[in-house]
Design brief:
Layout: E1 3-6, H1 10-22, E2 27-30, H2 40-64, H3 71-83, H4 89-104
Helix pairs in contact: 2-3, 2-4, 3-4
């Protein structure tokens, strides 16, 4: 499933909801910008914090079932964190790509 990070304002939720419908359905994930309206870098940090939680859950799930058969998958999950680099819009794009890849490979918790 596709996940769309959005601010929690009515306008942002409406816009993200319309995009989700155009995509044929997506989960909206509200991300905090620490209460500073209009500060894109704070929004990006909110997305980063959400990714850390998702990544931690995926790693824990894999560690619990770690074996020789799951080793390659564990290495792939471990490498995901390195793929989210860049500044603001670049990082947001890469974060979306990592989430999509993680969801497609069922890395989530």
């Amino acid at each position: 499933m596709i996940r769309i990070a959005t601010r929690g304002s009515a306008l942002a939720l409406t816009q993200a909801g319309e995009v989700a419908e155009l995509l044929g359905g997506a989960e909206l994930v509200e991300v905090s910008s620490d209460g500073e309206a209009g500060d894109k870098s704070r929004f990006v940090r909110g997305v980063e914090r959400a990714l850390v939680g998702e990544y931690t859950a995926a790693v824990r799930k894999l560690v619990d079932g770690l074996s020789l058969d799951s080793f390659d998958r564990a290495v792939e999950v471990a490498s995901l964190a390195m793929e989210v680099r860049g500044y603001e819009h670049i990082k947001l794009g890469r974060a979306a790509a990592v989430r999509a890849r993680s969801q497609a490979r069922h890395f989530g918790a």
